[in-house]
Design a protein that fits this description.
Length: 451
């Protein structure tokens, strides 16, 4: 998912009315490739973060998607363009198209020395219907044994094709027993929930709230607030926020979550700073200013959060390399207001946001989402493109089989609970991590900033 900034801010701040040039006349007749490519180039000149490296003229003959890609800076793997009327132009990911994410790791006894470990499955998805759950193993894709060299290409192929054939396996130490292959069709995965687990952990007379939050989705903002209200009603004094597979989403939802946690902030407190190209400059948004631009649904006023706010002096946040985008922004932005105790692995490292650009004349159907801003917290701290490093290093793949989401035996949760209760001797600090050949979860859903 992506963070997007409100368009009116960009347009209103760009120039005064007297400086605005007369608009170009709207073309008539069929849309040409030259018109599409000129629209792309003009938009990128205005909003793209690296607009100083764009060509002087548009290529009139190049196909739309390749032309857009040709404009991207080498430091930009995130910008994208798609046609809502053509599903084939949408980016494809294992989670959104098959309903699961996995990692492939070395494994003695596997057919080619490696095995797939399913880390997350969307309930009701094609992968779930095929029998996969968190902690499942597989040894082959399309009847080819997975290894360090072929797993990326095998995954790319099943994302391009209509189906993927997986060979499930049972593991008992170094003994790997393969089952009959199962076919998983590609499609649009069942709707992903944002909240997969919420509960109170009672330990040593402490009430610890636990929340597994997997997507910054405005459609569930009220459920998020209700979860915190329940935590508060039950007297929670500590919070474990599980963002290990959260790949981003709405900036408004990120502001709501942060406000529910952080003490001594108001609606007018600065939440995020974003810096664009020489035309767009640097701007700050308050909590209220950010919450006023949800991607979907109605605006939630800051005052409505007050009854549910925990206002904690610290928060324990669980992360992996699949903690991306808006999830990283929350970690970085909360550090201004409260102590963040990060447990797990270094995050992905995406400190930039996009905007959504559509043709306001209605002639061109393509939609662009170019990177437009570098992101920072209210104190101006950003620059985490190498990821955010945890205070305590823990790799869940060092504790197989994987525990269910929310299970207190999970390695990351167990570490957080031990720190809260002071019983750290039961959970030693890790000095090494499981070698991973490939992870399908290291995908990026961008922050789409309001513009």
């Amino acid at each position: 998912m992506r963070y997007f900034l409100p368009a009116f801010l960009l347009l209103c701040c760009a120039c005064s009315k007297k400086d605005q040039p007369a608009p170009d006349p709207v073309p008539t007749g069929p849309v040409t490739q030259q018109e599409i490519n000129q629209w792309i180039l003009d938009s990128m000149r205005t909003f793209y973060l690296w607009n100083d490296r764009l060509p002087a003229t548009a290529d009139a003959a190049a196909a739309t998607a390749p032309y857009f890609s040709s404009l991207l800076n080498t430091a930009d793997p995130f910008s994208q363009i798609y046609n809502p009327g053509n599903w084939a132009t949408y980016p494809r990911f294992m989670l959104s198209n098959y309903g699961m994410d996995f990692s492939v790791i070395p494994w003695t006894g596997a057919p080619d020395g490696a095995i797939g470990v399913v880390r997350f499955v969307i309930p009701g998805s094609n992968a779930a219907k095929a029998g996969f759950v968190r902690g499942s193993y597989f040894t082959r894709i399309n009847n080819v044994a997975v290894n360090s060299s072929n797993i990326a290409s095998l995954t790319t192929k099943i994302l391009r094709d209509a189906t993927g054939i997986f060979t499930p396996a049972a593991v008992n130490g170094s003994t790997v027993t393969e089952a009959a292959p199962v076919t998983v069709p590609l499609g649009i995965a069942a709707t992903e929930e944002a909240i997969y687990a919420q509960k109170i952990i009672n330990r040593n007379n402490k009430k610890i709230a636990y929340l597994f939050y997997n997507s910054f989705n405005d459609a569930v903002n009220n459920k998020l607030i209700a979860a915190f209200q329940d935590f508060k009603n039950q007297g929670a004094a500590e919070l474990i926020l599980d963002l290990r597979y959260n790949t981003g989403g709405s900036l408004a939802a990120a502001a709501i979550l942060s406000a529910l946690i952080a003490p001594q902030v108001t609606g007018e407190t600065s939440f995020v700073q974003y810096t664009g190209n020489s035309t767009q400059g640097t701007r700050k948004l308050s909590f209220t200013g950010t919450m006023n631009y949800p991607e979907t649904g109605s605006i939630i006023p800051f005052s409505s959060l007050q009854p549910a706010r925990l206002a904690l002096p610290r928060v324990y946040i669980l992360t992996t390399h699949a903690t991306i985008s808006a999830a990283e922004l929350v970690i970085n932005n909360l550090k201004v207001y409260t102590e963040v105790i990060q447990i797990g692995q270094t995050t992905y490292g995406k400190d930039k946001g996009s905007i959504t650009i559509k043709d306001g004349r209605g002639r061109i159907t393509w939609i662009m989402q170019p990177i437009a801003y570098r992101l920072a917290n209210a104190g101006g701290a950003g620059g985490y493109d190498g990821g955010i490093t945890p205070r305590y290093s823990v790799d869940e793949l060092d504790s197989l089989p994987l525990a269910e989401i929310g299970d207190e035996k999970d390695a990351l949760i167990a570490k957080a609970v031990s720190l809260i209760t002071g019983n750290t001797r039961t959970v030693p600090e890790q000095v090494t991590s499981q070698k991973v050949y490939y992870s399908s979860a290291a995908r990026v859903r961008d922050i789409i900033l309001p513009h």
